[in-house]
Amino acid sequence: MGTKQPSLLVTKASGTTVPFSAEKIRQSLRKSGARPDVIETVLDELYRQIYPNIPTRMIYKIAYGLLKRKAKAVAGKYHLKQAIFELGPSGFPFEQYVAELFRQQEFTATTNEILEGHCVKHEVDILAVRNKVSNIIECKYHHQQGAFCDIKIPLYVESRFRDIEWQWKNTHEKTQQQCEAWLITNTRFSTDATQYAACMGLHLMSWDFPTGGGLKDIIYQAGLYPVTCITTLTKGEKSRLLERGIVLCKTLAAHPSYLEESGIAASRKDLVMAEVENLCQEFTTSPISKKEPQVISVKPSA
After folding, report:
1. pTM
2. For a disulfide at 150, which of 124, 188, 190, 253, Cβ 3.0-4.6 Å?
3. Which residues make Cβ contacts (< 8 Å) with residue 128, sequence separation at least 6?
4. CB contact at 8 A, 77 and 37
5. Tell me, what DSSP letter sits at residue 176?
6. C-beta atoms surrounding 119 within 10 Å
7. In whole angstroms, what is the distance from residue 80 CA to residue 83 CA?
């Protein structure tokens, strides 16, 4: 490394300041598949451009821009966190994406289901079923980094779930089917939200929660990257794919014709598919066992 790491504070999306950490950037670049020489080149350039209290989004922007020029195949994976924020603006593409994550783990998953409660009917974002366990999943999508789910959200989700569960137990008493509740967000949970959920047996999943089983871990382990990671597509082209319900790069890898059907020029198809295949490489080389799903686990509530 040719340039010494500067000692300064940077500003996170939440507004808090933390010391600049080259090691965190190095780890993120390494996880994205960047070669050691590319990592050091990116860091050297960052050292020349950063300044006291620089927003972390600017650090990402600089690193991402360098990757697009020097290692385009890596840039899509490095873009993952921002790509999840691009599953909007309605939030419905995020629900579709989460449903696909469950389907890849051998769940039967449907979106926007109407379920009968003891008091009223409820529309749930996702109903995912596997091994006689029905998982009622509420998705909380945020447009911007720095936003988080405070305790009001799990309180709301839990109250709806209890109404559904009451009716569910009466209806499925003889079949002994279980019913579980989930709250999944693309950002983070507050401390009191996680504490309340643990006490009530509500499953939580966020960008990096639970440790080793958050959204980023599932995606990295299984190669289930969203189409918004593809750097060779324009924003409009990504939107057209999402409008058609195409949310996984894996889907495009299996059906390349979806690109032209979504209005993407045939002359660019090979370029886009090369990036898609790179993003799907982790999945194709290390597929998740169909007999024993390894990522999304469901345990009975406490």
Report:
1. 0.84
2. 190
3. 99, 102, 107, 108, 109, 134, 135, 137
4. no
5. T
6. 12
7. 5
